[in-house]
Each structure stands twice: as C-alpha cells, then as structure tokens.
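Comment thread on ticket #2218

A.B. wrote:
> Attaching the input chain for the structure job we discussed in standup.
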Amino acid sequence: MITEERLRQTFSEGGAQEIYLEVKANGDFLDFARQYAFSQDHRVARSVLWGLTKASKEELAQLQVILNEIIDQAMQTENSSIRRLSLNVIERLLIAEEDLRTDFLDFCFDHMMDVEEYPGIQSVCMKLAFRMCSFYPELMDELKRTLEAMEIDYYKPAVKGVRSKILNGKMK
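C.D. wrote:
> Ran it. Output below, let me know if you need it in another format.
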C-alpha cells in the first residue's frame, strides 16, 4: 500500500517503478497525483513524480485536468528534482493552443537559457518552449533567434542536441 511514509523513503529507480506498478494496478493516476504529488514534503512529491514518469502517455493523460497545477508546481518549487520531474510529466501531456500560458513560456525561455540550470531542465524547457511556440509563427521566430544567440560552448551535449534539432527543423 502506498503511504506518505513509504513515499518519503523511496530513493531508487526500483522504488519508483514499484510505485508506478501499484498505481497502474489501481488504475487511478489522477487521484494518486492529487493526493501526493503536491505534498509540501519534497521527498514525497519527488517520489510521486518519479513514479509518474514511468507511466505511458495514455496513463498520464488522466492528469490532463491538473495540467495547470503541475505547471504551477514546476514554476514555483525551489527543489530542482521536483522541477525536473514535473516538467517531464508536463512534456508528456497534451498542450493545446488554448493551454498556452505566457508565464510558463517565459519560465521555459528563462530556464533553457540559464547556464546555471541543470541540463535536464534546460532540455525539457527547450522542448516545451518549442511546442508552445509552434502555435504562432512569430513566437517560433523568437525561439529560433533566442537559440541562435546562445553561447553554445556553455551548454552540455543534451542541450546542444535539442537546440540543434529545433534549429534544423527535426523537432516534432
């Protein structure tokens, strides 16, 4: 049974996989996320989000109704693990044109460019910015100008790879 205490003590890939399998067996990703993903205890929230990253896009689709809450969490947390895991969940959800939030787009631009940010966060922010900008040609132009202006030597290979895919038209 999943409890806060168990979530607080999950520190491994295997533990995250076990959490996912239990939630999958129950079939209720939404209630699980609502109950635990926004916990003030960073260890609990991290374990929940880590388990959720194991889910398929179809399973994660249950979380579509709390997309804005997950976005808020990614933007507001000071914990880099929770930020990265929240962004990874968001990336696997549908972002429609009517879901576009300028505060979140600005957040993605800021974090993809921040050389002090972790490469995993930079990369997923770049992918999310691309998805949001794809609705508007003028935003896509701004994204491409921003990427072209990056001092690429300061970034890790993962970030360089996503940047290259976007600039070369290979990002979907």
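A.B. wrote:
> Thanks. Noting for the ticket: The two ends are 39 Å apart (CA to CA).
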